[in-house]
Amino acid sequence: MKKCVILLIAFISFFMKSYAQLPSQTDNSQYNIAQMIDAKAKLRNLGAIHSESPKMRPTAGKGGWFLRYEKGWVYYNPKLNQAFAIMENMMKKWGEAGYEIGWMGFPISDNLETPKVYGFYTAFENGSIYSSAKNGTHYVGGAFRNEWAKRGYENSPDLGFPKTDEVAISVNGYTRYQQFERGTLFFGNGKDVLYSNNPNATSPPEVQKYQLSFTPNYTSGGEPGGDLDGIDLYGWMDIRVYKANGSEINDIDGKSYSLFNIPKDKYMADEGFKTHLSFIPTNRDFIRNYAVTQNDINENAFVRIVYWLNDYDKSSSDDYLKLKTATGSIYYNNGNHPYKDIKLQEIVKYNNRTTREDDLSDGSGDSYRVGYILSLSKK
Q: What share of the chain is helix, strand, coil (3-state, %, to 5)?
């Protein structure tokens, strides 16, 4: 009899310890949330409910709930209607940021193992916390997290795991930095995130600026021998320069992006066009300059050239001269036009100066070729 009583008391004690947080089923939503929290704790093997918190409690953030267990916490995110498990080291770091009412917000993942390089992370609404044995536990958010994600997170060959939190500075317009295993990121309002390959850097590296110049070099064209009209050209050729993320690098002089724009009623006939072309290499109106940085080059910034050229034909319909070898096509200037992209790294590869040719054709004999020089020079 005594043995049965002891077993009964032990069973009751275990039941109360494990399920003391569950409200009555008449509490509806709270009961469902408690069930969700309890199920997550069991799934993540968090053990019994911690003695400091025998009952599920509301968070400071509206609509949330949490409960502490022997091996971690479970938080209910009201926006996602899900419960997430958070471990001790992640909880401490999250607390430094103000828990769910701080800048990071509610958790949106459990404490998870990183997929390739050994470590752990927990994702939150506005940031993440990462932990590794070598580098400790640190949060990553905002522009730094976006840049880190673009480079491959902890698997990035030039960053790796974070080894500090964000650190405030005031150097050359940069206001924050964060160090990683193999590099450092810098940020300032109105500036792109700047990368340094020095993992111990505390001030942004000097930015080497280059002047990118585009200069048309020569043009040529022709028609089948039986066509007496010759090439009567109208249309335009535009150039723009972009960072790898798609943001545009503006022309230094603020000039039009058109290298030439010939209206149809003012087409260039053979004789006049040839005369005009002889001035192209020295005519400053045909040169565009762009201020680019070494960081732009390293990050695969590129030149984009778009054509819309036509041969005015007096005896029949006009011939559209299409770019033969195009990178793609884009809706631009009220039409869908082919374009060519050239990475700045390709210019560097040829000692900072390369001559290119683009061939255009109507597919039936009319052809046109544009030659140009792309060069980079240090400022």
A: 25, 40, 35
Q: Residues 6 or more apart from 333 whose CB is under 8 A from it?
A: 236, 238, 306, 308
Distance CA 221, CA 268 (A): 12
To 10 degrees, the CA torsion angle through 199, 200, 206, 210? Answer: -10
The half-sphere exposure of 74 on its side-chain side, counting CA atoms within 13 A, is: 27
Helix (H, G, I), strand (E, B), or coil: what is residue 57?
A: strand
Alpha-carbon gap, residue 17 to 10, rounded angstroms: 10
Q: Is the sign of the CA dihedral 373, 374, 378, 379 positive or negative?
A: positive
Identify the residue with better confidence: 60 or 206.
Answer: 60
If pLDDT is split at 50, 70 and 90, which confidence band does 59 have? very high
10 Å CB burial of residue 325 (0-12, 13-18, 19+) is: exposed
**Per-residue pLDDT reduced to its tens digit, 278-311:** 333 334 445 677 888 888 888 889 999 998 888 8
Overall pTM surpassing 0.85 (yes/no): no
DSSP conformation class of 118: S
Query: First vs last Cα of the chain: how many Å apart?
Result: 94
Dihedral angle over CA of 162, 163, 168, 174, nearest 10: -60
- Alpha helices by DSSP H, listed for 141-211, are 142-151
50 in Cβ contact with 70 (< 8 Å): yes
- Write out the two tokens for 175: 């206001």
Helix (H), strand (E) counts: the chain: 7, 23
H helix or E strand, kind and range, residue 340: strand 335-343
Alpha-carbon distance 101 to 94, whole Å? 10
Contact 66, 56 (CB under 8 A): yes
Burial class (CB in 10 A: 0-12, 13-18, 19+), 38: buried
How far apart (Å, rounded) are the C-alpha atoms in residues 191 and 211? 19
Written as six digits, the tokens of 143 are 């522009």
Position 341 pLDDT exceeds 90: yes
